[in-house]
Amino acid sequence: MTICPLPLGFHLVLRMQHPIE
To answer: Which top-rank group of organisms is this from (predicted)?
Structure first.
């Protein structure tokens, strides 16, 4: 996984909007 300065909550929202299939 890539370490980003963004909070985990933000990544969760991105995953919900763009789910990885």
So the answer is: Eukaryota
What number of other Cβ atoms are within 10 A of residue 11's Cβ? 13
pLDDT at 17: 75
Q: What is the DSSP string of 1-21?
A: ----SS-HHHHHHHHHHS---
Residues 6+ apart with CB under 8 A from 19: none
Question: For the segment 1-21, what is each residue's pLDDT rounded down to a tens digit?
Answer: 566 676 777 877 777 776 666
Residue with tokens 């909007």: 17
